Amino acid sequence: MPYKEKEIEKKYFSIGEVAEKFKVATSLIRYWEGEFDIIKPKKDKKGNRRFTKDDIEKIQLIYHLVKEKGYTLQGAQEIIKNEHYRLQDKASMIQRLMEIKSFLIEIRSKLDDETFSR
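User: That's the sequence. What structure does it adopt?
Assistant: C-alpha cells below.
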C-alpha cells in the first residue's frame, strides 16, 4: 500500500476562500457579518478577515436559511436566535452528507474509468 501523506488541515480561511466555497461575492459575506452577530472572524494586523471552520459552519447555516430556504434576513436572525443549536447541528449534518455524496461520486467515477480502461 503506497504511503499517503497526512493532509495538513487549515485553521484559517480568507474571505475569498469562504466566498468561493459558497459561490457568493465577498461583499455578501461582509454584509452577513454585519447582520448576524454569530459571525465573528478574527482579523490579522492588516485587517484581513480570517475565518475558522466554526465561522464557516455558521455561514453555512445562514446560507442554508437565506439562499436555500428563502428566509428574509430578519426571519433567519429570529430562527438563529431561537433555535441556534438545533439548526447548527442540522447544517453540520447537511454539510457532512454533501461531503459524503462528493466522495461517493468520486469513487463511482474512478470505478467507471477503471471499467472502461479494461
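Residues 61 and 91 are 6 Å apart (CA to CA).
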